[in-house]
Amino acid sequence: MDKLRPLVLWRPLILVRGVFMSEDAIMDLQSKIAYQEDNIQELGMVIIAMQKQIDGLEICCKELRDRMREVSGSLGGGSDFDEKPPHY
């Protein structure tokens, strides 16, 4: 009786920078690169949104600091809002 030999599908190998790779391996790498590119773009958008939020918060803090100076000046204290007490 003849032994059945397993069916082997031949897949071409592609030479990439001195390394032979199958098409599946190349497609897998391309898929991973595309996924990473999407993530990098998404993270860039998050950074832009966070910077806008930081800019808004800095403006808000400046306005609050200015209002505190106005209030402390109108109370007749005469001391600067940011002034350290004498024991420092």
Question: Which helices and strands appear, and what pairs or packs with what?
Answer:
Elements lengths: L12 E4 L2 E4 H52 L14
Antiparallel strand pairs: 1-2
Describe, in plain words, how this protein is organized in 3D:
59% of the residues lie in helices and 9% in strands. It contains 1 helix and 2 strands; from the N terminus they run E-E-H. The mean pLDDT is 83. Strands 1-2 form a two-stranded antiparallel sheet. It has one helix spanning 23-74, and strands spanning 13-16, 19-22. A hairpin with a 2-residue loop joins strand 1 and strand 2.
Which tags fit this structure?
rod-shaped; mainly alpha; 1 helix; two-stranded antiparallel sheet; 59% helix; 88 residues; 2 strands
- Uncertain segments are none
The DSSP helix count reads 1
Average pLDDT? 83
Largest sheet composition: 2 strands, antiparallel
Provide the structure class.
mainly alpha
Proportion of residues in extended strands: 5-15%
Share of residues in helices? 55-70%
Count of β-strands: 2
**End-to-end distance:** 100 Å
Question: What's the alpha carbon Rg, rounded to whole Å?
Answer: 33 Å
Tell me the overall shape.
rod-shaped
Strand sequence of the main sheet, in spatial order?
A: 1-2
Sequence of secondary-structure elements: EEH
